[in-house]
Amino acid sequence: MSAVPLPEQRTLTTLHTVVLATEVLSQAGIPRGRLLEGSGIAEADLLTPEKFISHAQELRVFANALNCHQDPALGLYLGLRMHVSAYGMLGYSMLASRTLRDALQLALAHPDLLGTYFRLALQDHGDEVWLSAEGYRYAPELTVFNTELCLTSLLTVVRDLLGESVRPRRLLLAYRPPLHASTYTERLGCPVEFGAATSALCLGPALLDRALPLADPVSCHNGLQQCQRLSAAMSGRDDILELIRRHLANHLQEARGLDEVARHLHRSSRTLRRHLQQHNTSYQQVLDEVRYDKARQLLKDTDLPIYLIAERLGYSETASFRHAFQRWSGASPSLYRG
């Protein structure tokens, strides 16, 4: 098996969604132990709000929940119960924001505190503003569940912030209608369009400029500072290590060495090596992680032939890429693509 950690194993999040899921489903008679099985999360951890878990652990709980509850609309059900208070200091800071737009932009600037698996954005589209969710790359069997949970929890937050049960103009979903498609309009009270180019809550622009009833600029500023500290502590990241990852992701075809990367980052090679050693990793391991992430995305989301994917990852020979991918994933690129 691969020695390269997957993105969902590297990325940390809070326990708030797992706590909600176990609380709601335990009331339905499902033991917490069954929901946590195989996740590495103990029941005692649910009482420890400062504990962080990986996305992989959270995904395991979600898979267990679907298997135990047997309700295909579980994502909708949980998302509508994910109130703004569940997000701790981030939720508090959103409540103290000046307008709904300010609150949502604050949240989108801290995706790690939201615990989202998506790239979230506010986009103006004519007479609508879209709160979109794109870029999901984790467990494909949980795509519908996680999209439902993401968008309905955002709707719940919008309602909590404004203090009223507003309805979106419509809901766009980038997948075909599931068997429980009729449940969407029933629970959300708005038109739903499946097979869209992106998944998004569509809101009226005037709604975004509504003043929030609990706005307080001083509290919002103090809360934002605490969010920034929590975000840094939770990610456990080193800025330089993240700079290396981002640079490599944008220049994979050039397959630069550490010296060249250091020059572009305006750092010395010695500084980069020291930071890599402090994180018990190496330049080659980080390069492998970035290549593996990109390879998985290209294999699943595109029809590019294997030799072109190899080129995009900086391999001069396709065979070298095939051998590397086999080492990372335990499967050939063709088999992984399915």
What structural keywords apply?
single chain, 338 residues, alpha+beta, Arc Repressor Mutant, subunit A, 3 domains, five-stranded mixed β-sheet, two-stranded antiparallel ribbon
Could you say which overall geometry the principal axes of the C-alpha atoms support? globular
Number of strands: 7
Radius of gyration of CA atoms, rounded to a whole number? 21 Å
Major sheet strand order: 3-4-7-5-6
**Count of DSSP-assigned helices:** 19
The unreliable regions are none
Structural class assignment: alpha+beta
**% residues in beta strands:** 5-15%
Q: How many individual domains? A: 3
Q: Helicity level, as a percent range?
A: 40-55%
Element-level helix/strand string: HEHHEHHHHHEEHEHEEHHHHHHHHH
Biggest sheet, open or closed, and with what strands and sense? 5 strands, mixed
Oligomeric state of this protein: single chain
Give the rounded overall mean pLDDT: 89
Present the secondary structure layout.
Layout: H1 7-10, E1 12-13, H2 16-27, H3 32-36, E2 53-54, H4 55-69, H5 74-79, H6 88-95, H7 100-108, H8 111-114, E3 119-125, E4 128-134, H9 143-162, E5 170-173, H10 182-188, E6 192-194, E7 199-203, H11 205-208, H12 217-235, H13 239-250, H14 258-264, H15 269-278, H16 283-301, H17 306-312, H18 318-329, H19 333-337
Parallel strand pairs: 5-6
Antiparallel strand pairs: 1-2, 3-4, 4-7, 5-7
Helix pairs in contact: 2-4, 6-7, 6-12, 13-16, 14-15, 17-18
